[in-house]
Amino acid sequence: MTMMTIPPRPALLDTPEQDMLIGGRRVPALSGKRFETRNPATGALLATVAEGGAEDVDRAVKAARAAFEGPWRRMKPVERQRILLRLADLVEAHYEELAMLDTLDLGAPYSRTIMGKARAGALLRYYAGQATLITGDTIDNSAPGDVLSHTLKEPIGVVAAINPWNGPIGMSVWKAAPVLASGCTLVMKPAEQTPLSALRFGDLCLEAGVPEGVINIVTGLGDAGAALSSHPDVDKIAFTGSTGVGQKILHAAAGSMKRVTVELGGKSPNIVFADADLDKAVPAAAMAVFANSGQICSAGTRLFVQSSIHDDFMARLAAFTQGIRVGDPLDPETQIGPVVSAVQMDKILAFIEGAHSEGARPVTGGRRMSGAGFDAGYFIEPTIFSHVGDEMTIAREEIFGPVLSAFAFDTVEEVLARANATDFGLGSGVWTRDLATAHRMARGIRAGSVWVNCYQMLDPGVPFGGYKMSGFGRESGPHHIEDYLETKAVWIKLD
C-alpha cells in the first residue's frame, strides 16, 4: 500500500495578508478592514483576509457586468470549453495545495480533503462538455399564416455564488463550472471561516485563461453576503448553506426578482432493514454522519434500525464508533478532525446537553475532547444517542456536528411515515437486500437523493438537491446549466 504524503505548507500562506479578487486583480477592501482565519485544530493564525463590504460587492458586480457585456458572452462555446479543460488540468495539478488549504482552514483531515481531486476534475470536464451542448428549439406553432418560431438560449448574466464552509474547494468548483460553461459571470463569496482555497482557485482561473472580471471573489462576513443577495445588478443567486440564511436570501432577492437556487439543510434518514448486509451497513451508518465531523448537509443523522436487529446493530455501531480515530488533520491515520470553530463547537455541545435533558440515552461520546493534542482545538467525540423520541430537538433540528440519533422501527409503512416527518428532504439511505423494499422506499421517501446500500455518492452527471425546507433547484446533471440560461422566443412572419 502506498503511504499518503502530506504536502508542504501552501505557498499562499507565505503572504499573510490575503486580498480579494476583483476584475482580475487582488485588491484590499476599500474600508481597509481585515479578519482572521485560524486553524481549528490548533488555533494558529493562518492569514488575515480582506473584509469586503457593500462597496466592494458593488465594484465586484460592476466588474462582472463589464466582463459579461464584453466579449465573454459572445465567445464561441468551444473556447469556453477549452478554458474549462485547462482549468481542470490546473486544479488537478495543484490539488494537493488546495486540499491542504482546506485542511488547515476547515480542520478536515487531509486524507479526506485530498479525496476531492477526482471529483473536482470530473466536474470541470463535465461542464466543459455542457458548454457545447446549449441549444434552442424550433417549434411548429399553430399561428395563422406562414410563421417560424424558435427559441434561443442566452446566459442569464451576473451570478452571485454564496458558499458554505464545510467543503470549500469543492463548492468553489461546483459553483463556478456552470457559470463558465454558460457564458455568465460570477461574484463568489466564500464563507468567512474558510476563504483561502477559493482565493487560490480564483488565481488558477486567471491562469487558465478566464478573462478578467468573469470570476470575482469577495471575502467578507455576513454583511457582504447580504449586499450581494440584494444587489440590483445581480441576475441569479446560487446559495448553499443553512435554511435560515437561505430564507433571508430569498427575501433579499425578491426586490429585483432574481432567479435563485438554494441547497439548504437536512435531517436525513438512514434506514436499515433486518435483511441488510450489516458488515457494510454498520461502518456506512457511522460515517454517513461522522464524516467531516458531521458537517455535511445531507448527513444521515437519523438512523432507523428494524427492531429485530436493533440491539445487535447498535452494539456493533458503538464499537465501530469508539474505534474512529479523531485527531490531528495532518496525521494520515486521522479519520475525523475538529469542527470548524468555537462557535460551532458550542452550538453542537448545547444540542448534546439538550438531548440529555430531554431524556435521550447516550450510547457513546458526547464530550469535547481534551488532553494532549486536543485542548487548543475544537474536537468533539463522535456521539450516538438511542431512545430518541421523534419530537426531541436532536431528532428535528440540524445539528451540523458528529451527533447521531438512533430509532427502532417495525414496518415499511411506519418507517416511511417517520422518515418523512421532517421539514427537510435532502438525502436518505436504505439498506436492504430485497429489491421490492428498495424500490418502495426509493419511491416513498421525500428527499432529493435516495442512496440504496451506499451513502453520499455523487457524480457530475447525477442531479443533487432537496425537497421541502432543504431547498429547490438541482446541481450537477444535464439540466443544471438551464438555471444559468434565459429562454428567448423568436417569431418570424414569412408571408
Automatic annotation (TrEMBL):
PROSITE patterns: ALDEHYDE_DEHYDR_CYS (PS00070), ALDEHYDE_DEHYDR_GLU (PS00687). SUPFAM superfamilies: ALDH-like. This is Aldehyde dehydrogenase domain-containing protein. InterPro entries: Ald_DH/histidinol_DH, Ald_DH_C, Ald_DH_CS_CYS, Ald_DH_CS_GLU, Ald_DH_N, Aldehyde_DH_dom. The keyword Cell cycle does not apply. Keywords: Oxidoreductase. GO terms for molecular function: oxidoreductase activity, acting on the aldehyde or oxo group of donors, NAD or NADP as acceptor. Residues 33-490 form the Aldehyde dehydrogenase domain. The active site is at residue 263. Pfam families: Aldedh (PF00171). Belongs to the aldehyde dehydrogenase family. PANTHER family: ALDEHYDE DEHYDROGENASE-RELATED.
